[in-house]
Amino acid sequence: MPAVPLVPGDRSLPPPYDHPHASAEARAVAERGTLLRAQVGSGVHGTSVAGQDDRDEMGICLEPPEYVTGTARVPAGLSTAETVPFEQYHRHTAWDRPGGLANRSGAGDVDVVVYSARKWARLALNGNPTVLLLLFVPDEEVVVRDAAGAELVAHADRFVSRVAADRFLGYLRGQRAAMTGQAGAHPDRPELVAQHGFDVKYAMHALRLGVQGVELLSTGRITLPVPEPDRAYLRRVRRGEVPLAEVVAAVDDAEARLVALRDSPAVPARPDRAWVDGWLHRSYLTYWATLGR
User: Fold this and answer.
1) What is the DSSP string of 72-128?
2) pTM of this prediction?
3) Are 36 and 11 in contact (CB under 8 A)?
4) Residue 161: in which H helix or E strand, if any?
5) Please, which residues have CB within 8 angstroms of residue 189's CB and are 6 or more apart in sequence?
6) pLDDT digit string (tens) for 177-233?
7) How many whole angstroms separate alpha carbon 287 and alpha carbon 266?
């Protein structure tokens, strides 16, 4: 297994905001304990359209012991006495414009979420495609990666299972329904529907999930950016250059391949929870030993 290099990058995060997961205390926990953070949006997939996309980043952090073995909580924003358990620091720079939390991110914005290691692990063990992506980001798109993060990345295959197959299928089906407004889904981007007759961004993501899910279940890896010729085709879908009927057929084909892999005895029934528990235990104890130095 090739060594995963460390990336001693900048842990700083966008400033606090009056949001339940964006307090100053939550930011401090996330910054100090970050073990892995990287770009995870369209830019790393290779499917972005120049001048249209924001930058999505995701990270994982370790919390001090009082948040894990004790009852410590963080404020639920900047202007409230309410508190919440620390699970993540979540910040969109789009909130800084007039309109605040109602703003949708656009070109030049940064959306970043840093999960507690325990929450990230729960999501990853459940096969969440979005959080699993963090394990496969190329080195040049990694912001921070310490020894615990490198160990996690080196063992990405521990999360491959039929559970992940079901989650990829669920996400694919949800994106496909949203791209055409099926099952009462309300379009998030009515301007794309008006221009192309369907939401081409949802369409691209539905097909991307199929492509990446098939690769993960077949090889234990996800190649980023998406390899050619799939990447060029996804970009054509994103630009609205592929008719809806052709897109639907391509998504249906990817879905059928995912179903076949999910039902294959070659794919583990469950992820390796024992290894993940061991990694969490080692990582927290090692981190806690550094606090107060």
Assistant:
1) --EESSSS-S-EE---EEEEEGGGGSTTGGGPPP-TT-EEEEEEEHHHHHHHHHTT-
2) 0.92
3) no
4) none
5) 199, 201, 202
6) 988 876 555 556 778 888 888 899 899 999 999 999 999 999 999 999 999 999 999
7) 37
